[in-house]
Amino acid sequence: MLRIVAGVVLLLGLRCNSFAQQAPEGLFDRFLERMEGEQRRLPDYVCSQTIERIGRASADRELQRIDTFRVDVAVTGDRELYGRPGAKEFYGKSLAEVIGSGFVSTGRFALFTRQILNTSKTMYKYQGLNERPGKPAHEYDFDVDPAGSNYMLRSGNAEAKTGYQGSFWIHADSLDLLRVEVQAFDIPEHLGLSEAKTTLIYGRMSIGSESILLPVQTTASVITTDGLENVNRILVNGCRRFQTESTLSFAAPEIEIAPKRHEVLTLPSGAILELSLEEGLNLSSATVGQPVRASLSRDLRLGEKMLVPQGTVVRGQVVQVEKRAIPYPTYQIGLTFDALELGGESVPLNATLAETSPVAGLIQQTRKLNPTFQAGGRPRMEVLVRKVQTGEGYLEWDARKGQIPPGLKMKWRITGEK
Q1: DSSP state, 379?
Q2: pLDDT tens figures, 196-242
Q3: Three-state SS at 23
């Protein structure tokens, strides 16, 4: 299995300072003016991102898909917030913390175009009019030394600011930013990285009635000093305004009797939720962040008191999809369930997978990864959780079986309030 470099954050900023060659008169000033106008029109917004992660152990091997996950990213002010696709809430932690492992690239989705006008420590060199990508474009090279850089690399618990250089292209007619290529230089040795680079391709997307210039495709890659390469390929779609609902009232408040407060449901730590998966999970197309849905197959009770009735919907998502080829094709699937749909409200849930029923395709997890078969040739999983982590569960599944079937029975132990 590929060892993957932990999260990398890239923050960029550019500003014209001087030119080594003569650009067309007024070109760069007109470009800056246009970009500043774009920033003034740019609303706070949410877009969906699909992030494909690929990697290889060395340059002489083929790149292999590691996983794909989807998130919503909200850009408000100078912040990027990440959340589950379609959800109205966002995670209270970084995307790297949410994903938990592997190379993840953040901080460049919208903030690049906001920061491109904000620094005065960049040297530019005009390279002439050419075609890139497939359009007539003016090319500029740029160079930012570490002292003026906003380029942050993070590997594991180590991080450092580095200098960066690269090129960008401006459409000859519209003066839209088309493409940016960035590469770090003088990377500190303690990061264990020999190369870090990013390419951003810009395009116009509709947000409400506005046509806004955004990076619609991004490719970010890092190579470690021992030759491991990890790549993120990011596609953006489905952008919309980021809005919150609020009501202002200046009228005198009416005096009324306060209604009785709803009792807050407290789920007892250690209690078992018996769940049945409502829809099958196709392993070949499953992605990190993909929603999953189950229902309670037995009432949850505390003594004689019923807390949650049978049939209650429980929502979660896929947190890991990893394919392995040895000793035979298998998938490791990570799941989490984090909410109960009860009485029209969503009740936060924190539970860890404790047990699952035997079913064809489910493999016994042992240190040697040797499956144990019952009579009839059906594998039974006796030790289920490979990674003991609060709030998650991991299944080893025979890739030849195709999918995790609907109706899979699971027991999840409540581990406290979320």
Answers
A1: B
A2: 998 988 888 888 788 888 888 889 899 999 899 989 888 888 888 87
A3: coil
SS (H, E, C) 53-84: EEEECCCCCCCEEEEEEEEEEEEECCEEEEEC
Task: Report d(CA 348, CA 339) in Å as an integer.
Answer: 5
The residue type of 209 is S
Is residue 334 left, alpha or beta, with left meaning phi > 0 and alpha meaning psi from -120 to 50? Answer: beta
Q: pTM score, two decimals?
A: 0.60
Provide the sign of the torsion angle of the four alpha carbons 115, 118, 123, 126, taken in this order: positive
pLDDT digits (tens, 9 = 90+) for 94-148: 777 666 666 777 655 555 555 555 556 778 889 999 887 678 999 998 888 888 7
Q: What is the DSSP letter of 297?
A: S
Task: Supply the DSSP string of 225-255, one letter for each residue.
Answer: TTS-EEEEEEEEEEEEE---------SPPPP
Half-sphere exposure of 50 (CA within 13 A, CB side): 7
Q: Which of 152, 389, 408 is nearest to 294 (CA)?
A: 408
H/E segment holding residue 38: helix 27-41
* Distance between CA atoms of residues 199 and 3, nearest Å: 23
- Decide if pLDDT at 292 tops 70: yes
Using an 8 Å Cβ cutoff, are 6 and 101 in contact? yes
DSSP strand pairing (8-9 vs 105-106): parallel
- The pLDDT assigned to 409 comes to 92
What integer pLDDT is reported at residue 5 of this predicted model?
Answer: 37
Tell the residue number behind the tokens 């960029």, with chain if given.
Answer: 12
Cα distances (Å, whole numbers) of residue 285 to 128, 333, 396:
44, 12, 16
Tokens representing residue 131 in the block: 């075609």
What does the alpha-carbon distance between residue 309 and residue 301 come to, in Å, rounded to a whole number?
8
- Torsions phi, psi for 391 (to 5 deg): 90, 10
